[in-house]
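Late entry, N-hydroxy-L-asparagine complex.
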Amino acid sequence: MSNRRSFLKKTVIGSSVIIPSLIHSACQSDIREIGENYKPLILSTWEHGMAANDKAWDILTKTGDIVEAVEQGVKVTELDLKNLSVGLQGLPDREGIATLDASIMKGDGSCGSVAFVRQVKHPISLARKVMEETPHVMLAGEGARQFALAQGFPMEEETLSPRAEELFQEWKKTSEYKPIINIENHDTIGMIALGADGKLAGSCTTSGLAYKMHGRVGDSPIIGAGLFVDDEVGAATATGLGESIIRICGSFLIVELMRQGHSPQEACEEAVRRLISKNKDIDNIQAGFIAINKDGEYGAYAVRPGFNFARHHFESQELVDAKSKF
Ligand code: SD4
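Prediction complete; structure with ligand written out below:
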């Protein structure tokens, strides 16, 4: 009992943000000793993951509905006007059109995704509809848009956000494609969550690389590349140059490495090593991974510095800098 008290004290003092109601419920039933792993646990890529995690955490802890949590969580980012890599306000392709990719997956193998979809404000919700309402896993392009219409999704005007329009006009002066590491091209949100019941789910949504070729699809909607979840093992998601991640089936690779006994951190590091070995022009590539195993251990690793992720558990909500290879 005294151990538990001292842990609670450390929790209160050591946390960046405290949620009183959660501490209260922790007092009643759910205290973990120092060193024990965390359930529930939510990780999301980049700083915008903080707000997304807040939403997901609220849903997960109130309802226990992990799929709803990972969907609603990343919807916050899809609406964030400051984010130029997620949602319709994101930077467009070379033709000046915003096209979106998204995926969602449960630990029982259910999954859905949409790729190269236009005019849909919440591609993550469309991906969920693919998972729940169709016999398919992935819908792309006009077919995905038609499915959205049939499901009653409103169609948005195809006008760029003022900031995206400004940057696009600037880019058109040279029309040179040079990815800028950690800046405009790398802000996808990938979220992975572990519920108190040990079930896992994940979501990933992006407008993809800025000024990509029309029709280009990245890793985010590809199950196994941008996202993979297995209740028997854990979950992983990716951000960064999608082509480099697809080449190594990054998220699937991490889950399989964890299945073989590696910790989430070791698995993320091995995936980055593999990515570096399979991609030329590594000087111009950034990619990062986050992973959780079913015991509530987690890890993160990137090719180069600058990648961070948001971590929520019952004791605190933090933005954490990931380690990197270079
Ligand atoms: C893509 N992986 O389409 C995405 C981009 C990204 O953070 O992650 N940005 O390649």
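The mean pLDDT is 88. Will revisit in the morning.
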